[in-house]
């Protein structure tokens, strides 16, 4: 019964005009003349007393009486959350507000409270006059019911991505076409190919630079303008970064990933390394640093959301675990399914796939209807957008809807919500496996289909996950031969309670495995990872076309399949060789395990799953119910490229800190030993801090010296030179991790540089792969670091 308190209340206010007629004489100072009931949502400390429900109920009762409010009980299924209503007639609203504020602010057991604003709602059904809207089956599918993103109900609740900016990192965006222009954000846009702020695509020989415009239309095409189509998040702003129309370098990619990152919330990237079934490549060191920097500092510190397509190499047996963008923990990796929910011929599988959404299939299947450029052969509208290129922007649009209802979701919250809400469905190609936390995953479909309704409802009640905890094993040197199938090389590493104590990690998010292997034919290798629960991930799939003789050099595979599971226990990898006996045996040299997760216990995960399911009725989306959101940080937007400088600055700070620390200890040690006749002077001069001893004073000065060391000024970053080693294959950088605006965590991360390769855009036209290559210079200038 209690569960419907809010929806019922809302019903009352839907009928408020009637109410108005009847109550014009109430004499309220309310401008509308309507007597509004004051209500507060109050969250009590769940650890109060023994934490039992009855005790919290009793506490709620006592608290409500103390401030003269009526306790209306638990809000829906949000345990610890109570609704208090003002019933007294004596006190004025302002007095009540003041009193409530004074008492709740001071009370230890009140986690937070907020006065509930009343939402005026009028239900409207959507009749768009856009001529192609009826053909946009991915938005509303009448031919195959259920095979759409279930977004119309979200729009009806006035959730359209308002206040959110999505940027399409691609070959430009023609922002002048009718369906883009009103939503275009010039502030978020840039052209890295020509180095100007205008991302207008260039008409090319093949009428091919329409790709970015098509992706932009899927996200934010303007509705009800009698033109073409409607975007998933048509209330959002859409920007373009033109970067794929010409040679692409690591530094350009890095700039793109952080461009205007306080304006752009979501980066939609429908491109990646070559999908030829023999490439192993990903972002190089600057691109990696930029992704990392983006999740730390982007979007006021909540983290930029990077949505990447899983790739179109299906027909070449390609696998997205060999794609560093898909593997990255910072990206939301999205695959495609056709209108029937099946895996299309071009789709790739991998253990790091988070979820899938719709795109084209083979000839009988409909493609994605979206905007197009109107240059050259374009008409401003197309029915033929295809490939995983078309899937990623749909996902980016759905994330925009989530960020509207809860702007302070962190980059990890977004991934969590996808894991918690994606839906499993039967498909003959997908091999689903239930993991230790109860989540279903398949290498083909990730955690399942994205569903805009489920995503936004969950986002609305989602409180941030605890800060990111990580564990890195030592580099495990094996140097063992890899046997031919059916024999396997089995390796294992135990992660103990003590190992996890430092970070506080209890449950997993991503699991990464970095391997170095020599092998005469890389595509013959198969690598499986088993988490402690027994959940398996095929991280290294065999690839027929991959004849590369160099094996893997510190390649990091990742899996999301152990999401939510207990982190502690034995991790095993099984390696085998499916090739012929005539080839030389490969050697498994080293590996290293990296776990990412949080302090959530398995019970916390289960509890959150329950909450997410309970929120699916729409009662919170409907209401003006809102959880408090921290404001985020003011992070200035710098025009110039700052990754290298930031990195350097952090390095210097850390270096300075280390110098300071060791000095402090030296001094402490020294002070505890020296005779009373000495004195200390610490000064920073030039590039080094000098510790000198002054002779001659005695007695009281000793104390002074001790004080001096404590108030030692931190060396200015310009005053300390930090020696940092860089070698050919291994470029280290230090990053300041900040995953929630309130939490700061330092971590040293050494990333390796993969071999230079080519880049391709995922674009399938008429179901043929017309993959276009963009050469990028692999020879990155390491000097940019220094
Ligand atoms: C609902 O909340 C939004 C923002 O949280 C606010 O702008 C709006 O005025 C509220 N609506 C009503 C009817 O109070
Ligand atoms: C679209 O525009 C028509 C008038 O052209 C209007 O009747 C209709 O309500 C509009 N639909 C929406 C969803 O705004
Ligand atoms: C789709 O959205 C509607 C609300 O518009 C909701 O009632 C329904 O349960 C959703 N379906 C799924 C499968 O999530
Ligand atoms: C939707 O939100 C916009 C912006 O806040 C507001 O102007 C409009 O009235 C809302 N529409 C409904 C039906 O609530
Ligand atoms: C996972 O699949 C199992 C078996 O089909 C099903 O019982 C369970 O509800 C699924 N879990 C989720 C979270 O969908
Ligand atoms: C891990 O622990 C198991 C028993 O708990 C033990 O048999 C095994 O040798 C350990 N493995 C390693 C690599 O330490
Ligand atoms: C780093 O900062 C300096 C000034 O502090 C500036 O001159 C230089 O251009 C910056 N380098 C980069 C790559 O932005
Ligand atoms: Ca330009
Ligand atoms: Ca339109
Ligand atoms: Ca690929
Ligand atoms: Ca990823």
Automatic annotation (TrEMBL):
GO terms for molecular function: serine-type endopeptidase activity. GO terms for cellular component: Golgi membrane; trans-Golgi network. Pfam families: P_proprotein, Peptidase_S8, S8_pro-domain. Residues 181-204, 765-786 are annotated as: Disordered. Its main location: membrane. Residues 181-196 have a biased composition (Polar residues). Residues 464-601 form the P/Homo B domain. It is found in: Membrane. Residues 1-26 form the signal peptide. InterPro entries: Galactose-bd-like_sf, Kexin/furin, P_dom, Peptidase_S8/S53_dom, Peptidase_S8/S53_dom_sf, Peptidase_S8_His-AS, Peptidase_S8_Ser-AS, Peptidase_S8_subtilisin-rel. Residues 769-779 have a biased composition (Basic and acidic residues). This is P/Homo B domain-containing protein. It comes from Engystomops pustulosus. The lineage of its organism: Eukaryota, Metazoa, Chordata, Craniata, Vertebrata.
């Amino acid at each position: 019964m209690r569960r419907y308190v809010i929806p019922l209340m809302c019903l009352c206010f839907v009928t408020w005009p009637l109410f108005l007629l009847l109550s014009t004489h109430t004499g309220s100072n309310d401008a509308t003349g309507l007597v509004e009931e004051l209500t507060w949502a109050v969250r009590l400390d769940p650890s109060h007393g023994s934490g039992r429900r009855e005790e919290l109920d009793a506490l709620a009762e006592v608290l409500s009486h103390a401030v003269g409010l009526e306790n209306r009980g638990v809000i829906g299924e949000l345990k610890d959350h109570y609704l208090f209503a003002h019933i007294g007639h004596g006190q004025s609203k302002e007095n009540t507000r003041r009193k409530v504020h004074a008492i709740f602010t001071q009370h230890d057991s009140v986690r937070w409270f907020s006065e509930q604003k009343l939402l005026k709602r009028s239900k409207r059904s959507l009749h768009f006059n856009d001529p192609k809207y009826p053909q946009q089956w991915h938005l509303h599918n009448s031919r195959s019911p259920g095979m759409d993103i279930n977004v119309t109900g979200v729009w009806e609740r006035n959730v359209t991505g308002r206040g959110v900016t999505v940027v399409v990192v691609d070959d430009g965006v023609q922002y002048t076409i009718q369906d883009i222009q009103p939503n275009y954000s010039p502030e978020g846009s840039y052209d890295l190919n020509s180095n100007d702020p205008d991302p207008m695509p260039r008409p090319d020989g093949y009428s091919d630079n329409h790709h970015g415009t098509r992706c932009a239309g899927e996200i934010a095409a303007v509705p009800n303008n009698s033109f073409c189509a409607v975007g998933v998040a048509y209330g959002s702003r859409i920007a373009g970064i033109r970067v794929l129309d010409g040679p692409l370098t690591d530094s350009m990619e890095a700039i793109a990933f952080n461009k205007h990152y306080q304006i752009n919330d979501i980066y939609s990237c429908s491109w990646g390394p070559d999908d030829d079934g023999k490439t192993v490549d990903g972002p190089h060191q600057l691109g990696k640093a930029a992704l990392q920097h983006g999740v730390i500092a982007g979007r006021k510190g909540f983290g930029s959301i990077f949505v990447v397509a899983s790739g179109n190499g299906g027909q070449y047996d390609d696998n997205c675990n060999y794609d560093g963008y898909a593997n990255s923990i910072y990206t939301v990796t999205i695959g495609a399914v056709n209108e029937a929910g099946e895996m299309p011929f071009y789709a790739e599988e991998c253990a790091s796939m988070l979820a899938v959404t719709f795109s084209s299939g083979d000839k009988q299947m409909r493609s994605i209807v979206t905007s197009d450029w109107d240059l050259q052969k374009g008409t401003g509208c197309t029915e033929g957008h295809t490939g995983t290129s078309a899937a990623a922007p749909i996902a980016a649009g759905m994330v925009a809807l989530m960020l509207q209802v809860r702007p302070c979701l962190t980059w990890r919250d977004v991934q969590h919500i996808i894991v918690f809400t994606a839906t499993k469905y039967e498909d003959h190609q997908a091999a689903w496996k239930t993991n230790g936390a109860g989540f279903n995953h398949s290498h083909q479909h990730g955690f399942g289909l994205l569903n805009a309704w489920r995503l936004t409802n969950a986002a609305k009640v989602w409180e941030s996950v605890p800060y990111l905890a990580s564990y890195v094993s030592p580099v495990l040197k094996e140097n063992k031969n890899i046997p031919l199938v059916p024999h396997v090389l089995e390796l294992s590493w135990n992660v103990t309670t003590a190992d996890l104590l430092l970070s506080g990690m209890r449950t997993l998010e991503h699991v990464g495995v970095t391997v170095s292997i020599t092998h005469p034919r890389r595509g013959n290798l198969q690598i499986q990872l088993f988490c402690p629960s027994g959940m398996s991930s095929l991280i290294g799939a065999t690839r027929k076309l991959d004849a590369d003789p160099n094996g893997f050099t510190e390649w990091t595979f990742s899996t999301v399949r152990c999401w939510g599971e207990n982190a502690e226990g034995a991790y095993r990898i099984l390696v085998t060789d499916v090739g012929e006996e005539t080839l030389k045996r490969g050697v498994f040299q080293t590996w290293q395990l990296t776990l990412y997760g949080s302090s959530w216990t398995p019970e916390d995960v289960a509890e959150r799953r329950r909450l997410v399911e309970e929120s699916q009725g729409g009662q919170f989306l409907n209401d003006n119910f809102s959880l408090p959101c921290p404001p985020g940080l003011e992070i200035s937007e710098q025009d110039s490229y700052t990754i290298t400088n930031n990195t350097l600055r952090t390095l210097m700070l850390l270096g300075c800190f280390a110098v300071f620390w060791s000095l402090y200890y030296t001094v402490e040690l020294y002070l505890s030993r020296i005779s009373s006749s000495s004195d200390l002077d610490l000064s920073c001069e030039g590039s080094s801090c000098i510790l000198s001893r002054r002779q001659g004073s005695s007695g009281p000065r000793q104390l002074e010296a001790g004080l001096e060391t404590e108030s030692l000024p931190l060396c200015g970053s310009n005053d300390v030179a930090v020696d940092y080693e860089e070698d050919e294959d291994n470029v280290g950088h230090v990053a300041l991790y900040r995953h929630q605006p309130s939490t700061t965590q330092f971590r040293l991360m050494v990333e390796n540089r993969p071999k230079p390769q080519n880049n391709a855009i995922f674009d399938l036209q008429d179901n043929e792969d017309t993959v276009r290559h963009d050469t990028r210079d692999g020879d990155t200038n390491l000097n940019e670091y220094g």
